[in-house]
Amino acid sequence: MMPIILNPPTGMQPSCVTPDRDAALRRLQQADFALIDANLYLDTHPCCPNGLEYFRCMRIERDNALREYEINYGPITMDASDACTGWDWIDRPWPWELEA
Amino acid sequence: MWIYQKKLEYPINIRKPDARAAKIIMTQYGGPDGELGASLRYLSQRFSMPYKEVIGTLTDIGTEELAHLEMICTMIYQLTRNLSIEEIKAQGFADYFVDHTTGIWPAAATGMPYTSASFQSKGDIITDLHEDMAAEQKARTTYDNILRLIDDPDIREPIKFLREREVVHYQRFGESLRITQDKLNEKNFYAFNPSFDKTPPAIS
Q1: A65-68: long-range contacts (C-beta < 8 A, 24 or more apart)?
Q2: Which residues in chain B touch residue A90, judged by CB atoms under 8 angstroms apart?
Q3: Mean pLDDT, chain A, whole residue set
Q4: Which of B72, B104, B111, B165 has a C-alpha 20 to 30 A away from that of B194?
């Protein structure tokens, strides 16, 4: 039986270090940091309409950035592994390994 | 980096407060074989690991240990709810109470504060994996001892779950050691530290 490929690779192996991967990672890190910082703000300003709108907006950007990164370069969290052709969760690079 | 999940790994609902049990269980938060030390041991060791399977195992078990220390703290919290001063004195909790009230603070059952002196990060994969396997067995023994001391099923069930996870982790670290040895010189696993030495010695 043929395995079902949920996220077909787009030519780039997850462990490849390229300017494109670097840019996708920076985009994800920036969007994620915006969410982290908005989270802290909202913890102490739970009714602020502007803060809530900012959070909703940045969450869309984070979700898009996450999807783009994971489709092209592999899982950010273990449950995003496609778990079809192998357990790509353990593939390099790990975050502390030099990116270039 | 990490993301917090607003749930426990295994449900905990302890109906009957028991400060004596809380002091015993606390050792698996901040004691020498506790979950805090386990998590920091694995999350520290993984940086010098040469093989991706072992990096993944240390990352994932180190992460699960954080969920386990949350379970232990939840048990301590539920066991020290609504205590009267008379109960605190009668249940041997006055010495902890005077320093921390009923706040959660990592220490061993004997009162020794949490210390990283109870674990190693040696920068040698075989050394570290043997330490990790020993650590899981020490934690398993501690959970066995807790089960010898405590009868309340509300406490025993999550403790039994945590004990089982020690057994699973021991198995995974054993597999990590086997993967490592498969990659080394089978005539002398200890001649070469793949985490540090640049080239292996010639096989004679």
Answers
A1: A65/A24, A65/A27, A65/A28, A65/A30, A65/A31, A65/A32, A66/A28, A66/A31, A66/A32, A68/A24, A68/A27, A68/A28
A2: 52-53, 55-56
A3: 86
A4: B165
